Every structure is written in structure tokens, then in C-alpha cells.
Amino acid sequence: MTVAHLQIPQGNLFVAGRWVPAMSGAGREILNPATGGVLTTVADAGPADVDRAVQAARTAFDSGVWPGLSPRARGRILLRVADLLRHEAEEFAELESTDVGKPITFTRNIDVPTAIETFEYYGSLAAGIEGAVRATAFPAMAYTRREPIGVVAAITPFNFPLILSCTKIAAALAAGNTVVHKPAEETPLTALRLAELLQDAGVPDGVFNVVTGGASAGEALVRDARVDKVAFTGSTSTGKRVVAQAGETLKKVTVELGGKGANLIFADADPAAAVHTAMSGFVFNTGQFCMAGTRLLVERPVYADVVDALAQACSQVRVGDPRAPETVVGPMAGPRHLAKVQSFLDTAEDDGIRVIRGAAPSTSDGFFVAPAVLVGAGQESRYVQEEIFGPVLTVQPFDTEQEAVRLANGTSYGLAAGLQTRDVSKAHRVAAALQAGIVWVNGWAMLDVAMPFGGCKQSGYGRENGPEGLDEYLRTKSVVVAL
Ligand code: NAD
């Protein structure tokens, strides 16, 4: 696969408005998931690089160059970022597709448009950041101020690099914070290109910094006492470590973690639409989606028909070259992700589970895996309880609404859930009973920048998107002036 026409970032970190190499000179190879070949080498930041980036963000914050701007002035710059991103949409779509292995149709129609909308949304919302005048029992002029928190460490995972970078950066900057962003070690390329765009849009030096690196860079950021808030998205196991490390300096933390989304098909649902939703719910983004619908619960009268329809649909999913417009499922983003998925598929049949497989491309290159439906996995099995993070769906029957809700809520996760039904009362009743940060009825992954998402239970806490997502980057100060 040729990617010669793309401007692929290499080699440097973005600190205080300049491109600088890692102090140690260390680099990290970035792979093309569709071929397994090396795309580029980026700087591998160590603690000294993190120190320098945090100092740049601290200095920029304390100088007032960004928090001292009016919210409207900040918003105008973020709207300019959206314009520049729109201008470079195709470049970003191709870069994201090449770096992550996402089908180009999706990066063109979902990832990049969502990134643009996120800057537009928070650029517009910035104008509404304001406090309130309060009545007191004694003579005073009393009011609240909504202030930025300070330096934000924005740490993101590999699966939606551009969208998750933008979600954190746009909200944090709209609120007036400065940012050190550490993208995932496997997929940092669009974050690096974003740094150029922010600079071109007029974000002052030091306000936005990017360090590429792995766990040690992330840990150095989280532990640094000059960082005031950590916005983390990643696995539940890393999230627990982040919360513990951030606790040492009592930072404000939001953690957006793993999921094991339950999708309930009731017997009254539109059968074709329900199966279509079930399929897209687990194959979207090659199943590397925290909010994927990876547990299908089907009401017994339609269970056998749904399993048959899934087998049929699975055989028709187009798995292959992410650059081909007809591709629906690309490769896994990297070898460690493929190995994890494979470790579940390798044992499933021995554990008495029927495995229905789709077709994967017949190539030994790249990190491809065929979609798979697991029929007969028990509620307490690891297939149902653990996040596989690939295109793998478990299917279980249920007999009553109560049983469906019990099974759906019966994991340690609580991120996304959904139900397919034509009964309006049941829709609202079950939506209220499901333990999840977001619930979809008659569809899946209906996400919008205006609608907050986030976890309950071990899927984490905090919300991104919507006004709630902006609130996470603001704090309230009360001012009371005696009269
Ligand atoms: P991960 O936890 O391995 O890594 C996430 C980020 O944390 C990376 O940038 C990594 O370098 C960094 N990191 C690793 N160790 C660290 C440490 N000790 N301190 C600070 N940072 C550290 O996750 P991943 O494999 O990249 O991503 C997949 C996971 O992310 C899945 O569990 C998925 O469900 C979750 N996810 C959640 C959401 C959400 O909104 N809830 C969205 C996307 C992905």
C-alpha cells in the first residue's frame, strides 16, 4: 500500500510551539495495520520530555495568555481550528485510516466530521461560560466565576485517536486551560497534525503541547504536581492506576474506560432492523469501540431466527483493505490487539461455544480477524464478562424483561447499552433500568457532540460531550463583596 502522498509526521514532539526531538533521541516505530510494515518513526518521550512539556503548559497558563482571553475570543480560535480541519479533511481522513487501519469510508464520514463538529460545538459553547449573581442573607454583592482548572493532561487510547483528541482538547481549551496531550503509542499521527492546525489557528505557544510516548510518559504526566487535571480515556486496568497515581497530588480526574455493551432484542422489534443494528453494533471500528454492543440478549421466541440471520449477515461483511470504499471492517490496530482477540477465539470451541465466523481476507500481512458470533457462552464466562475489544459478539437468550435487565447489568462495566423494541413504554422503562452512561433505543452508536457520554461502575466517571463535557474542565469560585 502506498502512502507516499500523505504528509506523515515523524520524529518530533510539539512543545511550547516548536517541534523538538526527544531529549534521549529515542524513537518509536508506527506500524501500518493493513500491512504490518513500518509507516514512520515518532519521538518516544521520556520523563524529561514530559517535564519540559508540562513546564510549557504551566508557564502558558500562569502568564494568562490563554485563560486571560475572553471565552468568546477563545471560541473564535477554536472555530478557526474547525475551518482548517474542514479544509484538510481528506488529508486527516487518509492519515487516520492509514495509522489505525480504519476503513476510509468511516474516517471520511465519521471521524473527521465528528472532529470538526467538536471544535465547532465547543468553540460556540465557550461564549456561554459565565457565572451567576446570588442573593445572600447579608448585604453583599455575591457572584460565582467559572474558571479554568489549569494544566490538563489529556491521555487517549488507540481506537478513536482523532475524535478523542478533539473531544478533550476542544473542551479543555474552550474552558481556558492549557494542555499536554499524550496520544496512544500506536496511533499518534493525527494528534501531531492537529498541533500544526492549532498553531495555524492562533493558539498561542505553550497552550497546546503533544508528547508521543508510552506508559512511562503517561505516568510521568499523571504524577506531575504542576498538572491540575487528568482527562484519561483507556482501559479499566490502566484507569485504576491513573486514579491512584493522580490521587497522590489530589488532581481532578475523569476516567472514560472499558465497556461490554448489552444490546437487547425484544420479540416485538423490527427483525431486519434489529439484526442490522446488532451487526453494526459489534463490527463497527473492527469492534475496537468502547461502546460496542458486544453482548446480544435476544427474547426467546425470536432467538433462533436472530442467530440464523446473524450467521448470514456475518458471511457478507466486507473485511479488507481499509482504503477500499466498500470495506466495512479493516484490520485490528496492532499485533497486541489481534493477539488478545485471537486468545478468546482460540479457546471458545473447547469451552463448548458454537463459533460463527465471517470471512477475513486471505493474506498473511496485516492484523486482520474475521467477525465472529459466539453462541452458548454462559453469563459468568470470560466471553461475556471481559472486554474482548474486537469484532466478537456473544448471543444469549432471555425469557422476561426482568431477566434481560439482570443479564444486561450483570457485568462490572456500565458504559453503553441499547434495546430494540416497538413498545414505547417498554423502551423508556428498560432504558431507565439499564446501568449505563448512554442508552440507545432502536439503533446503536447514535452519538452526537451535544449528548454527553461516560461510564458508571468500572467504565469510569466523568462525562464528555455536551455542556457536561465543558463543566469537567471548569471550576467555580465564589466572590462575595461586602456592601
Ligand atoms: P490503554 O489503557 O492501554 O492505554 C490508554 C492510554 O493510556 C495510552 O495513551 C497509554 O500510553 C496510556 N497509559 C498506559 N499506562 C499508563 C499509566 N500508567 N499512566 C498514564 N497513562 C498510561 O488503552 P488502549 O488499549 O489504548 O485503549 C483501549 C481501551 O480504551 C479499551 O478498554 C476501551 O474500552 C477504552 N476506551 C474507552 C472509551 C470511553 O469513552 N469510555 C473510549 C475509547 C476507548
Mean pLDDT: 96
Strand sequence of the main sheet, in spatial order? Answer: 14-15-16-13-12-17-18
Weakly predicted, low-confidence segments: none
CATH class of the largest domain: Alpha Beta
The number of distinct structural domains comes to 2
- The H-level CATH homologous superfamily of the largest domain, spelled out, is Aldehyde Dehydrogenase, Chain A, domain 1
User: Strand tally, please?
Assistant: 20
Helix fraction, binned, reads 25-40%
Q: Class by helix and strand content?
A: alpha/beta
- Stated plainly, the CATH topology of the largest domain is called Aldehyde Dehydrogenase, Chain A, domain 1
- Roughly what fraction of the amino acids lie in strands? 15-25%
Pfam family, one: Aldedh
Keywords: Oxidoreductase
Protein name: Acyl-CoA reductase-like NAD-dependent aldehyde dehydrogenase
Domain Aldehyde dehydrogenase: 19-479
Write up this protein.
This protein has helices at residues 47-63, 71-87, 89-100, 104-125, 161-174, 189-201, 215-223, 236-247, 271-283, 300-316, 335-348, 382-385, 401-408, 424-433, 466-471; strands at residues 12-15, 18-21, 27-31, 38-43, 133-134, 140-148, 151-155, 178-182, 208-210, 229-233, 252-256, 261-265, 293-299, 354-357, 372-375, 392-398, 416-420, 438-441, 460-461, 474-482. The strands form 5 sheets. It has a 7-stranded mixed beta sheet with strand order 14-15-16-13-12-17-18, sandwiched between helices. Strands 9-8-7-10-11-19 form a 6-stranded mixed beta sheet, with helices on both faces. The chain starts with 11 loop residues before the first strand and ends with a strand. The longest helix has 22 residues, at 104-125. The chain is an alpha/beta fold. The protein is built from 15 helices and 20 strands. The model has no long low-confidence stretch (mean pLDDT 96). Helix 1 packs across helix 7 (215-223) and helix 3 crosses helix 4. It folds into 2 domains: 3-257 and 458-482, Aldehyde Dehydrogenase, Chain A, domain 1 (3-Layer(aba) Sandwich), CATH 3.40.605.10; 262-449, Aldehyde Dehydrogenase, Chain A, domain 2. Bound molecules: nicotinamide-adenine-dinucleotide. The site of nicotinamide-adenine-dinucleotide (NAD) has 31 residues, from helix 7 and helix 8. Nicotinamide-adenine-dinucleotide binds at residues 155-160, 182, 184-185, 214-215, 218-219, 222, 233-235, 238, 241-242, 256-259, 290, 387, 389, 415, 455, 459-460.
